[in-house]
Amino acid sequence: CKYFFISCDDTKLLNFTLISGAQLSAHFSNDLIGLFFTYPRDPRETNAAIVIHHLIFLSCGIIGSVFYLTPFTYAWLNLCEISTIPLNIRWFAINTGNGNSCIYWFASYSFVLCFVIFRIIMYGIGLFDIYLKYEEIQQHAQALSKHTMKINCTVVVLILVSIGWILQLYWFVTGILPLLFRKGGKKKQKKEQ
Fold first, then answer.
1. What is residue 193's predicted lDDT score, i.e. its pLDDT?
2. At what angle do helices 123-132 and 71-80 cross, to 10 degrees?
3. Mean pLDDT of the 114-118 span
4. Distance from CA of residue 24 to its chain's centroid?
5. Dihedral of the CA atoms 51, 49, 53, 110 (nearest 10)?
6. pLDDT given at position 152
7. So what's the pLDDT on residue 117?
8. Stretch 133-161: mean pLDDT, rounded?
9. Helix %, strand %, coil % of the chain (to 5)
10. How many other C-beta atoms are found inside a 10 Å radius of the C-beta of residue 34?
11. With 90 as the cut, is the pLDDT of residue 121 above it?
């Protein structure tokens, strides 16, 4: 029932998956709109990795909601977004001229802590659990040969989620660790002459 919903009569789990997948999709759709159209950003900040991240999890949310797939996965994917709260507080501190304030530093360190706990450790534990249960998942998949669309979509979700975790590790090494050691001043705009 954690990975497939064939012969699953747990209505709470079915509802959780639908709501979680829809919530995940709504969050990433809203954030993508913000990235492209709303927030005043330097184009370098809206890079391909951020767009790929959003598209991966938007796809997972849509596929999971439509086909009622992988409810366990949505639990930890939604928890990953807890780190967005201190990230937004940090962004607000920078954009209000408080890039070296206590609020900025508290938000920065809270963001890193939440990122490590939820996006690296919990996410990794979730993937490791799937790896440990892979044989069981395969047995269910073989028993459900007439439900090939659900099986294919589950495989797609699990591949996308694995790619997403690799992206989290990449961000941690290239962006999060260096973040700890710089001030949060606003970036200066280059004036065109």
1. 45
2. 160
3. 94
4. 8
5. -110
6. 79
7. 95
8. 75
9. 75, 0, 25
10. 12
11. yes
CA-to-CA distance for 55 and 77, rounded, in angstroms? 14
At a CB cut-off of 8 Å and minimum separation 6, what does 31 contact? 54
Going 51 to 53 to 56 to 62, the CA torsion angle's sign is negative
Which one, of 140, 171, 133, 39, lies nearest residue 92 by Cα?
39
For residue 58 the two structure tokens come to 């938007």
| The token pair that represents 9 in the structure block | 């009569």
Residues belonging to the chain: 193
Band (pLDDT 50/70/90 cuts) for residue 33 is confident
DSSP letter for 68, please: T
Which value, in Å, is the radius of gyration of the alpha carbons in the chain? 19
170 with 49: CB under 8 angstroms?
A: yes
Q: Locate 11 and state its tokens.
A: 């209505």
d(CA 21, CA 29): 12
